[in-house]
Structures are given as C-alpha cells and as structure tokens.
Design brief:
Cyclic Phosphodiesterase, Chain: A; single chain; alpha+beta; 3 helices
Length: 180
C-alpha cells in the first residue's frame, strides 16, 4: 500500500430487507440463470458512492441519521433484466412517492456535503437476483410486499470467495410505538 494513500472503502446506501422479504427474493432466484446474488447481499441500492476515504464515515453516518425515519410499502411484483449489464432483478411496477422523495433528498444531501456518487442513471429500484444472467422468464408470482424501514450504509468487500456486503451504519427502524 502506498504510504501517502488514505484508506478507502467501497460504499453505498441501501434499503435492507427483513428476513421474510429476503427469503421471498431468494425463492425468485430459482427462476433466473446466472451468478446468483448471495442471500445476505440482497438489497435495493439508494445511492452508490463507490470508493470513498475512510475518514468520510462520520459525515456519512450523520447524513444517514438526518434521513426521515420511514416505513415505505414496496410491492415487488415484476422480474426485469438489464441487458447491457446482464442483470436479472426483482422490483416494483409502481414506485411509491415516498421512495422517490427519499432518494431525491439523499442525493441532495450527498451533493451538499460534496460526496461523489453515481448520478448517471434514473433511479430504478431493484434487487439484483443474478449477474452474468440470462433474461428471466416471464413468470407469474405472488407479489412480495416489503415494509422497507431499514436504511443502511454498506461496505462492499471483495474476497477470494466473492463480494460480501457489511452494514457499517444504519438508521434504526420504527418501533410499533412510533409507527403512527
């Protein structure tokens, strides 16, 4: 490692599924062919930050804490495919306004803090089921209703056996007493 180089982390903000949602997403993977996303890595990316200096973590944690606490009902009711990147995914036909607002606010705050992030594409919420995949068959499945209430900051770690995601900060979920 170069002595003058600051340590960096590969980071992104995401909606992190509960166990029931994660299990339902894993069931859908039986209908796709490709390199399946590891069960523990299933999520929906809100903002991909890429390589960031490790000393930026306090700023990112504070930014996460400033996000409104939420419980967005997402109905994952379609399988899709990104041809160019060969990604099979599950996502919603209809995107709740609250999710659009969350992503817009998160991007504004990242910009105001001068944090670089991937701004190239329109936000299309999806959970990647497989990479290097064939287009999934058009199958009927019971929609997955996900009460998305867990926003996290995740580190992507590449190891010999593949990529692993580690939650390094999270916004606490609403408790039943706070859930109006």
């Amino acid at each position: 490692m170069n002595a003058g180089r600051k340590p960096s982390l590969r980071l992104f903000f995401a909606l992190w599924p509960d166990d029931a949602t994660r299990a339902r997403l894993a069931e859908l993977q039986a209908h796709v062919h490709g390199k399946l996303t590891h069960y523990d890595n299933l999520h929906i990316t809100l903002a991909f930050l890429g390589e960031q200096p490790a000393d930026l973590l306090p700023v990112l944690r504070a930014l996460l804490d400033r996000q409104p606490r939420l419980d967005i009902v997402l109905t994952l009711d379609r399988l899709g495919y990104f041809r160019r990147k060969r990604i099979a995914w599950a996502g919603p036909h209809a995107i709740p306004d609250a999710l659009h607002e969350l992503v817009h606010n998160l991007r504004q705050e990242l910009t105001s803090e001068a944090v670089t992030f991937d701004q190239r594409a329109e936000f299309k919420p999806h959970a990647t089921l497989a990479r290097d995949a064939d287009a999934p068959s058009d199958i009927a499945f019971d929609p997955i209703v996900w009460h998305a209430n867990r926003i996290v900051l995740v580190q992507s770690i590449t190891q010999a056996d593949g990529v692993h995601y580690k939650v390094i900060a999270e916004q606490e979920a609403l408790t039943p007493d706070e859930d109006g």
